[in-house]
Amino acid sequence: MTPTEVVFNLSYVLAAVLFILCLRGLSGPESARRGLVLGQVGMLIAVVGTLLHRDIVRYDWILAGLLLGSVIGLAISAWIPMTKMPERIALSHSFGGLATALVGVAEYEREASQLTEFKMAALGFETFLGFLTFTGSIMAFGKLQGFIRGAPITWKGQNVLNVGLFVGSLAAIGLLVVHPEMQGVFLAIAGSGLAVGVMAVLPIGGADMPVVISLLNSYAGLAACATGFALNSQILIICGALDGSSGLLLSMLMSKAMNRSFANVLFGAFGTALEPTSAVPQLGRSYNEATVEDAGAVLKASQTVIVVPGYGMAVSQAQHAVRDLAAALERRGVEVKYAIHPVAGRMPGHMNVLLAEANVSYDKLFDLDDINDDFARTDAVVVVGANDVVNPAAKKDSSSPIYGMPVFHVELSRSVIVLKRSMNPGFSGVENELFFQQNTMMVLGDAKKTLLAMIGELKEGGH
Ligand code: NAP
Predict the structure, then answer these.
(1) What is the pTM (predicted TM-score) of this model?
(2) What are the distances in angstroms from CA 169 to CA 112, 121, 166, 183?
(3) Does 211 score more than 80 pLDDT?
(4) Within a 10 A sphere around the Cβ of 133, how many other Cβ atoms?
(5) Higher-confidence residue: 377 or 401?
(6) % of the chain surpassing 70 pLDDT
(7) b or e along 18-55 (b: 16 or more beta carbons within 10 Å of the residue's beta carbon)?
(8) CA 228 to ligand 1 center in whole angstroms
(9) Is the beta carbon of 388 within 6 A of some atom in ligand 1?
(10) CA 30 → CA 203, 207, 289, 372, distances in Å?
(11) Which residue is closest in CA terms to ligand 1's atom 13?
(12) Least packed by Cβ within 10 Å: which of 118, 281, 390, 463?
């Protein structure tokens, strides 16, 4: 082995170790930043190591690609706000899928006749899954951005058609292994990947897109893994396997935390929250509509407060105002904690990311299991744009679509202050009994504006 080859191999081993440490770091908010840095360093080492590959004959195109990728990456990170994270991830997956698929096409054109059967199978998978990830991610992006209708788009026999195309593509990959010279079959595999990506995502509701994106992430990982086998690249095999398995696990965990089966997310045509909110289902029921002054009075009389943030905090960009309200309360000697639900918002860790952006200290954030017993002995709960994650129907009403989903026991605390704009339901579209309880005050309006007014109220002093 030449010294360059030794460095090359070592760089891949080091990068692989760093990627594993990165995933480990990402499993908790305290270590997430460190995990990200480790992942970035690992990627840098892998890229530099790859540049030492002995088969590289010229660097100008590689340089052009590096520059183009960096410009696109920088533009995306500068312009897409934190609230649009699922869209950003969908977009970057589409690039990853396209890159993988194009490598597959190039490899087929270059050396189809010399590939072993195993490598041809890997190349077929890589091309199919790469194109599928590309169009699927573009569809997910479109649904989240609103340029494709967010509601499930369904038609008769679509599941049969999708499954048929999938199975047909697997058969075509088998045929290509036996007859690698059949270019038409290769093109059919590529076309089928593009079509399945579109048709599999259309029937899924816009609000379920985070699960879909996470699943597409795992497809992109599998495609990269297949590329690794086709190109003899160990680092791609390792990265692809890590990406594929973590994406799949995340999708399963998200489905579980929503108390939905995986199949229900993918084939259930559920989740229309991106459509205009449906008519108010609880017309005629009375609730306590309160003013900011009323809410301020309750908070002034409290010793312990729990803040429950939800999707509405992200929409309203109220995370800084939430932190300022907590600071104003703490100055009055109140103990403030934050209750973070695993599926609050629209992507895993959504609330953690927003609160971290507002510099809320991690030790004040509590997971569902760690805080749920505290609600019964808490003076006041401030629900900031959360709905489904505080809906008692998940515990009591077996006919409810969210029955069985773990939720916060908010209704047990002495007073509940709910900040939202209307009495409309949340993501699942079901009515929330919490809003009609005697101890619940509904302070209707944009969360950020209401919070700022509440902070002003607290500053006015007095008890
Ligand atoms: P939610 O049930 O969707 O409720 C959010 C509430 O925020 C709405 O009721 C809305 O009421 C309010 N809101 C919107 N804009 C607001 C604003 N500017 N100011 C104040 N309030 C505002 O949210 P959640 O309680 O966080 O629950 C998350 C849901 O998403 C769960 O059903 C979960 O299963 C699902 N989901 C989560 C993920 C994930 O990974 N986190 C992925 C997919 C699906 P108004 O319209 O009346 O203001």
Answers:
(1) 0.78
(2) 18, 12, 5, 14
(3) yes
(4) 31
(5) 377
(6) 95
(7) bbebbeebbeebebbeebeebbeebeebbeebbeeeee
(8) 40
(9) yes
(10) 37, 28, 38, 21
(11) 312
(12) 463
Ligand 1 contact via 311 beta carbon (within 6 Å): yes
What residue owns the CA closest to ligand 1's atom 40? 347
Other CB atoms within 10 A of residue 276 CB: 8
**73-111 pLDDT, tens per residue?**
899 888 887 667 788 888 888 999 999 999 999 999 988
Q: Which residue has the tokens 């706000």?
A: 81
CA of 198 to the centre of ligand 1 (A): 26
394: Cβ below 6 Å to ligand 1?
no
State residue 273's pLDDT score.
44
Tell whether the model's pLDDT for residue 65 goes beyond 60. yes
CA separation for the pair 17, 63 (Å, rounded): 26
The phi, psi pair for 11, rounded to 5°, reads: -60, -35
Bridging pattern class, strands 304-309 and 415-420 = unpaired
Cα(396) to ligand 1 centroid in Å equals: 20
SS3 content of the chain, % helix, strand, coil (to 5): 65, 5, 30
Which is it for strands 304-309 and 440-444: parallel, antiparallel or unpaired?
unpaired
Q: What is the dihedral of CA 221, 311, 314, 322, to 10 degrees?
A: -130
Please tell me the predicted confidence (pLDDT) of residue 187: 96
Whole-angstrom Cα Rg for the chain? 25
The owner of tokens 């309880």 is: 437
Find out whether the beta carbon of 385 lies less than 6 Å from any atom of ligand 1: yes
Ligand 1 atom 29, closest CA = 427
Find out whether the beta carbon of 354 lies less than 6 Å from any atom of ligand 1.
no
Give the pLDDT confidence score for residue 462 in this predicted structure.
56
pLDDT of residue 268: 58
Phi, psi of 179 (to 5 degrees): -125, 75
Average pLDDT over residues 249-261: 82
Q: What CATH class has 292-460?
A: alpha beta
Structure tokens at 274: 């991106």
Report the candidate in 366, 363, 361, 341 with the shortest Cα–Cα distance to residue 351. Answer: 341
Give the model's pLDDT for residue 276.
40
Atom of ligand 1 nearest to the CA of 208: 43
For a ligand 1 pocket test, name from 420, 422, 434, 442 the mutation site with the most ligand atoms within 8 angstroms of its C-beta: 420
- What band does 267 get if pLDDT is binned at 50, 70 and 90? low
Candidates 208, 243, 374, 388; catalytic one: 388
